[in-house]
Amino acid sequence: MRSRPDPGRLLVVDDNKVNRILLARGLEGHGHRVETAENGRQALEKLRSDSFDLVLLDIEMPEMNGYQVLETCLQDPDLRDIPIIMTSSLDELDSVVRCIELGAEDYLNKPVNPILLRARVNASLEKKRLRDEQRKLLHTFATKEVADELLKSGFSLGGKYADASILFADIRSYTSYAEREDPAEIIELLNDYFALMFDAVASYHGTVNQMAGDGFMAIFGAPIHRDDHCEQAVRAALEMIELVAGFNIEQAAQNKVQIKIGIGIASGRVIAGYTGTQHRATYTCVGDTVNLASRIESHTKVVDHPILIDQYTREGLPDDIRAEPLGPMLFKGKQQPINIFAVQLR
Amino acid sequence: MPLIDQATFEELKQMSGAEFIDELIDAFLDDAPHMIEQMQIALTAGDVESFRRNAHSLKSNANTFGATELGSLSKELELMARANNLDVGNRLDVLRAAFAEVAAELQEMRT
Q1: Hey, which residues 4-43 in chain B have their CB within 8 Å of chain A?
Q2: I want to staple B55 with a disulfide (CB 3.0 to 4.6 A). Which of A2, A77, A178, B77 is the partner?
Q3: What pLDDT does A292 receive?
């Protein structure tokens, strides 16, 4: 651990002036920027109008006490990630236990010991920094709900079985009216394309977990289980096709490259969990279902249908989504032929 | 027993930074008489909660400065109020006297 970590922005909440000055001066001495509040109501006003890395919160206060502030923060999605250290006198042990159970990060006894203060504040700031980094990384790939769930359940959890739908998508062809493609234009196109596709996946509660070239893989129904993962995956696929159609109209109007995509979806049991190292980790799924989804996606090259799905996915669809059977198909790595269906476009 | 425990006071200085110790002493000397006054008002009004809260604050500050005796007196009053008992006898006068002594000593300790 670093002896002098980066300074943080701290809020000291205490109705007692001596305690406020003491904590503020002590923490400023360690290089932190410190604001103070005299009661719970004032603390919440500051927390809502400004951003803080850590709160030191007194329990005994008039107007709004420490419990009420703690509970309010934990219920507020914008405030619940700010770590809170409770400050209390030694004979308030019961109250401290209650706060820790509620979700306070840590506690300090008053009069505060300077060495403990420094250690606990630094540890909490360090933990928050790590969580912020993880969150940023996760949000690049996952929807907010999935990212929050992953952060809550922790990264150390091993793999588990999950019932999910796996979607693979790839650009099948590029059509250009220009004689030669411009590399910058292709990269711009890919960025626009991915932005559209990830939006579609996210709006149907999926998580994009892999990108390779112009293709990607998305998971529906894990890590948060949902019964309608087949339907969500297929609706996302339909929206992707519509978005690409709209995108192509815009591209054509500007005399730019147009694309065709293929999507394959398979559903069933997968092994889901974190893979990677301490520094670089991703949530992923492996297993036959994943391999099958990838093979089905490749098969869109052979048949002229942009969305192909397997039988399990078909069985999970409501009546308003039509899928036409294409018959059994033999895939590499599969002993039995697989029944494939082409989803009817809207 | 010394009025101010030197080890606690030194720790306080280390914590705030020696240059801020006067600011802390001033804050205490400003606030504490107000707390004692609030305790007197609460006592007259029979307001157990206000009495307890002010005794609690005074105790907390006294302990911060190492004013051990003042701390114990405040704590005793806090615990009485917590037990819903405001039958404090002459304890508030004793507390006032103890604070006056501590205040004089802290004035001396200003740098």
Answers
A1: 8, 11-12, 14-17, 20, 23-24, 27-28, 30-31
A2: B77
A3: 93
Instruction: Give the pair of three-digit tokens for residue A282.
Output: 């991703």
A120 and A254 share one domain: no
Q: Which domain, by its residues, includes A172?
A: 144-343
Q: Any idea what the CATH number is for the domain that residue B41 is in?
A: 1.20.120.160
Closest CA to B103 of B6, B15, B10, B4: B4
Shared domain for A131 and A164, answered yes or no, is no
Read off the pTM.
Answer: 0.60
Asked if B31 contacts A18 with a C-beta cutoff of 8 angstroms, the reply is: yes
- Domain shared by A112 and A168, yes or no: no
Interface probe for B, chosen from A19, A21, A22 (most Cβ of B below 10 Å), is A22
Chain B residues in contact with A17 (beta carbon < 8 A): 27, 30-31
Structural domain boundaries enclosing B37? 6-109
ipTM reported for the complex, 2 dp: 0.90
Reading the block at residue A77, the tokens are 């999605």
Q: What angle do CA A172, A178, A179 make, to 5 degrees?
A: 95
Could you tell me how many CB contacts below 8 A there are between chain A and chain B?
Answer: 64
Reading the block at residue B87, the tokens are 């039958």
A119 & A150 share domain = no
Which residue bears the tokens 């529906």?
A220
In a domain, B88, yes or no: yes
* CATH number of domain containing A227: 3.30.70.1230
* Count of domains forming chain B: 1
**Does residue A96 sit in the same domain as residue A177?**
no
Q: How far apart are the first and last CA of chain A?
A: 57
For an interface test with A, the pick among B60, B72, B75 (most A C-beta atoms closer than 10 Å) comes out as: B60
Domain count, chain A: 2
Distance from CA of B94 to the nearest CA of A (A): 23
Q: Which of A139-153, A195-209, A256-270 has the lowest mean pLDDT?
A: A139-153
**Least Cα separation, residue B93 to chain A (angstroms):** 23
pLDDT tens-digit readout, B35-53: 999 999 999 999 999 999 9
Residue A258 CA to residue A242 CA, distance in Å, equals: 14
Contact between chains at A22 and B31 (C-beta distance less than 8 A): no
Q: A86 touching B, CB under 8 A?
A: no
